[in-house]
Amino acid sequence: MRLQNEREQLVAYGKRLITSHLTTGSGGNLSILNREEGLVAITPSGMDYFTTQPEDIVVLDLDGNIVEGKRKPSSEWRFHLDLLQHRDNINAVVHTHQVYATTFACLNWEIPAVHYLVGFSGDKVPVAPYATYGTQELSDNILKTIGDYNVVLLANHGLIAVGHSMERAFAAAEEIELVAQLYYQTKCIGQPVILNNEQMGEVLMSFQGYGQGRRK
């Protein structure tokens, strides 16, 4: 079976989409690019994450052709493939319908630096203009918006997070949901204080060494 490791990751992280409250039902989708083989593992369309098995994961080439798998790939396969080829530091894509972030997507509002953890995206979370799900127009809107950001809101739809690994992309989706909830709550109470460019610049520099890399 091609891309066994990537398939197993998608099965595990698909369940986490539900248990982490980042989507409901069969909503959302996940993909991982194996750059050495030039192949993408992507979740199947409309399947329950808790019944999905590694053999249900679909393997595509970068032109969108099915290389292996009996299921239909996610209806959002276009933006997955386009994002994975857009920047060489993107190897995984997470698409969710998480409630707080999607609330701001439905308002067509960016999420500003109300908390330093917005740095998982960049200095903010931008919003891509609305287009019907599964269309090339939606993919084009995402590519025009994402720039160097790691998270993008999809107007009236949801959220996309990208990363060099599935672990990193998924973490970005989770952390931005926290930031979105904090932004929502501060807006309910009063006027949130937003971190300035200098403050966020320091955060982003610090994030470059974040994690369990070798100490220098």
TrEMBL record:
<keyword id="KW-0456">Lyase</keyword>
<dbReference type="InterPro" id="IPR036409">
    <property type="entry name" value="Aldolase_II/adducin_N_sf"/>
</dbReference>
<keyword id="KW-0479">Metal-binding</keyword>
<dbReference type="InterPro" id="IPR050197">
    <property type="entry name" value="Aldolase_class_II_sugar_metab"/>
</dbReference>
<feature type="domain" description="Class II aldolase/adducin N-terminal">
    <location>
        <begin position="8"/>
        <end position="184"/>
    </location>
</feature>
<dbReference type="InterPro" id="IPR001303">
    <property type="entry name" value="Aldolase_II/adducin_N"/>
</dbReference>
<dbReference type="GO" id="GO:0046872">
    <property type="term" value="F:metal ion binding"/>
</dbReference>
<dbReference type="GO" id="GO:0008738">
    <property type="term" value="F:L-fuculose-phosphate aldolase activity"/>
</dbReference>
<dbReference type="GO" id="GO:0005829">
    <property type="term" value="C:cytosol"/>
</dbReference>
<protein>
    <submittedName>
        <fullName>Fuculose phosphate aldolase</fullName>
        <ecNumber>4.1.2.17</ecNumber>
    </submittedName>
</protein>
<dbReference type="Pfam" id="PF00596">
    <property type="entry name" value="Aldolase_II"/>
</dbReference>
<dbReference type="GO" id="GO:0019323">
    <property type="term" value="P:pentose catabolic process"/>
</dbReference>
